[in-house]
Protein 1
Amino acid sequence: MDYMQTNKAAWEEAFENRHSGWGEKNADMLCRCRLPFFVPDAARELEKIDFRGKRIAQFCCNNGRELLSLMKMGAEQGTGFDFAENIIGQARDTAQKAGINNCEFIVCNALEIDRKYSGGFDFILFTIGAITWFDDLNPLFAKVSDCLRSGGLLFINDYHPFMGMLPMPDESGYDARCPNRIVYRYFRKEPWIENNGMDYMSRAYRSKTFTSFQHTMSDVVNSVIDNGMRVNRLNEYDYDIGLSDAYDNRGLPLSYILLAEKPGNILTDSGAY
Ligand SMILES: C[S@@+](CC[C@H](N)C(=O)[O-])C[C@H]1O[C@@H](n2cnc3c(N)ncnc32)[C@H](O)[C@@H]1O
């Protein structure tokens, strides 16, 4: 079985084991707050974008909370893609409860998004812990580029690749007295294999296998560029956005925002301008 099929099964199992009430307050948050679920720096960058009348998408959207919060910025149509069937079920449920009826959620592997979406989006979003599930970023960003219309934007807010070098507090390599200690290689090629559930949504349990991958910052930037997009902005931040606050505000790059655009005049198949 290839690693994506195993990951799909592991994510669906994690949802089955979710903490009681996980995700169930999202509809309420969507009704009460502007741009809930984004860190302030991401919200500030998103506020600069005019979403009115736009067709927007999120790849690996999980339970849809972030995409749904962008829908409230005036987008005309939203589409969330994720391969976990039961998690997409919660996304649809949240949309309905929040009264957002112009956002669809599609169960599929992000690499196999239907060709009918080619050129279909003005804006594509990736957030926290989405691109790590792909061993090679090239087919992923090729799909993003294909789905964007000319002039469309890609927005990524994710863990900084530097974080992959740091042990988490529950790992044996972590030493609170030596918090800047580097344990893992930045250029790590072998995948991360984990069988402890998905801690932000479930308790720890002996789970199906999650396989994820370390990418360097140049892997990310070059795959975006090589697939016909132009990087407009790259911001780095010294705080984490989901794994642990143990390293926050110590001068280490822990998260980033990348904004790229698919220009109108690019010849993506030859790589030439
Ligand atoms: C860490 S979550 C993203 C979380 C989201 N940012 C949030 O805070 O709710 C990663 C998501 O990627 C999805 N995923 C992983 N690999 C995928 C693939 N190949 N195609 C589609 N979805 C995928 C998983 O099902 C999971 O919902």
Note: Residues 4, 7, 11, 60, 62-63, 65, 81-84, 87, 109-110, 127-130, 133 surround S-adenosylmethionine (CB under 6 Å).
Protein 2
Amino acid sequence: MIELYYWTTPNGHKITIFLEETGLPYQIRPVNIGTGEQFKPEFLAIAPNNRIPAIVDTAPADGGGPLSLFESGAILEYLADKTGRFLPPTLRGRAETLQWLYWQMGGLGPMAGQNHHFSQYAPEKLPYAIDRYVRETGRLYGVLNTRLADREYIAGDYSIADMACYPWIVPYQRQQQNLDDFPHLKRWFEQVGARPAVQRAYALAEQINTAPTVNEQSRSVLFGQGPATGKR
Ligand SMILES: N[C@@H](CCC(=O)N[C@@H](CS)C(=O)NCC(=O)O)C(=O)O
């Protein structure tokens, strides 16, 4: 059984997509990051970075005790190894897939996240910051568009690289991007979005939370963090 510590955000959706695709049994443990549940000691014991997603695998392959993990890329890689799905077993296939997974983790996710922050949430509209992250998001969309020009999925067959990138393209309008400027990316986006497992993952999110996570109350919880945050 996989216990998934989850909230309804792009990094959370990556893991529900994987779990829905594979049918691996899982239970959701909602962590409302807007009300500060990411600072509860029991969550910090699993996820010391006070961020979702995190998992506990109650039956790891080595037969040992429960194994906990945070960081969505590490979780996807672990679950792919556990199930033997969505990460090719070959040396080159694995390297290529992980390369794009970490491109998402180090590039698309953080840059689109800053784009959301400065465009939507920052109390001051700072033109330099907005321009910087909207442009960088656009550059990364361009990289993905070029990559998808001559292939169906990001790295060989549909893989954890696609599952990591897709939820970060879903909010493309909030990121001030026009998918018509990226036709190969648009084709891939529609193809991935039509997968039944992806649709189940997003439908599940609607059952767990329909309110925006960032509002007046949650603003200080999410954006007021500093060195003392999460100290135990
Ligand atoms: N690199 C991390 C990022 C996780 C992350 O930023 N999670 C956000 C939601 S998408 C979160 O939990 N935020 C809570 C907070 O800011 O306190 C991962 O991919 O798992």
Note: The mean pLDDT is 96.
